Amino acid sequence: MKKITFFLIIVGLFTLAGCKKVDKTELSSKPNAAVLKLQDGAVIVLLLENQNVPIIFQWDTANYGPQLVVTYTLQMDKQGNNFADAVAVGAVTHAKELTIVTSDFNNKLLPYLPDPAVPEPIALEFRVKTAVNPNVNPLYSAVIKQTITPYYVPVVYPILNVPGSYQGWNPADSNTAIASLKSNDLYEGFLWFADDNTEYKFAKGSWDENWGDDNADGTLDPGGANIIAAVAGYYKLNADLIALTHSALRTEWGVIGSATPGGWDASTPMTYDVETQHWTVTMDLTADEFKFRANDAWDLNYGDNLGNGILQQDGANIPVPAAGNYTITLELNKPIYKYKLKAN
């Protein structure tokens, strides 16, 4: 079988603790910093024909003195983001390499694209996080930069089902689910609850693994009590299966901006269509700019950074090409949020 090897050599990577609490005096007095042998500045193109080929990241483990259980996590993020949204490529313990199939690695890259259907080079940076004990801060290797172009395949994002009274308590219904765009156990999505006091939970496709909230305090409890949305409406749901927290925000959407009748002072309301699951408004616009915002406030708003119809939170203003009457559609029912601006 053909293999692709990304050499990632970690020389003298050091930590301060193991599975047990480690006395610093047990450690080597001259630990060395990390030296990554991943080719800095490399330009790589992934190919669909290699989708089943394993990619191997390799490193040399450190010599700390004591025998410690060290977990190595390979992280990546876009260059310049300072790993604020780091994605774990994978993690291993007491091993000198990490193997990931090309298709799985490619899927981790696609969420970085403004439009996954149009692959383009992504400027990335990589580092290795080492951890030995929850009581000790992790250490990080030096950063290596590469530019990688993925290939397009329809993305199947990990989903977290949201069974509840509004859909017959079906934990396998993928139409009532929220998604993790970065496959990192952070889930987000919008759902319509038609009735007051709608009850729901989170589940992984069946009742075998489900979460509720026993104290209605935003903490997820395995097998916990039903969560209640007191007022009917369109809710933005977030669930963090790492920190075991969740939130629900009831939203009503509008457009605002210099192109709209209310300028930047007041939103023009949109209307939700239960059948299409979209928000729409038909209105006169001037040749200026607008954005989408929820609840007549700026806490949650979307713009378009690249002018490609894909929305980003706190994104750039959306230009209107010419004055006229338009139908504006806001589509928040899929993992990638989009909009349409149609002249009438």
* Number of DSSP E strands: 29
N→C terminal distance: 56 Å
Helix/strand order: EEEEEEHEEEEEEEEEEEEEEEEEEEEEEE
Rg, nearest Å: 24 Å
Uncertain spans: 7-25, 27-34
Compute the number of structural domains.
Answer: 3
CATH C-level class of the largest domain is Mainly Beta
Biggest sheet details: 6 strands, mixed
Overall 3D form: globular
- The CATH architecture of the largest domain can be named as Sandwich
Model description:
The chain is mostly beta strands. It has 3 domains: 4-149, Immunoglobulin-like, CATH 2.60.40; 159-250, Immunoglobulin-like (Sandwich), CATH 2.60.40; 253-343, Immunoglobulin-like (Sandwich), CATH 2.60.40. 2% of the residues lie in helices and 40% in strands. It has 1 helix and 29 strands. It has one helix at 102-109; strands at 4-7, 42-45, 54-58, 71-78, 87-93, 97-101, 122-131, 139-140, 144-149, 159-161, 177-179, 186-193, 198-200, 202-203, 210-212, 221-222, 227-229, 233-240, 245-251, 253-256, 268-269, 271-273, 278-285, 289-294, 301-303, 312-313, 318-319, 324-331, 338-343. The strands form 8 sheets. Strands 2, 4, 5, 7, 8 and 9 form a 6-stranded mixed beta sheet that branches. Strands 20, 21, 24, 25, 26 and 27 form a 6-stranded antiparallel beta sheet that branches. Strands 22-23-28-29 form a 4-stranded antiparallel beta sheet, with no helix packed on it. Strand 22 (271-273) and strand 23 form a beta hairpin. The N and C termini lie far apart (56 Å). The model is unreliable at 7-25 and 27-34 (pLDDT under 50).
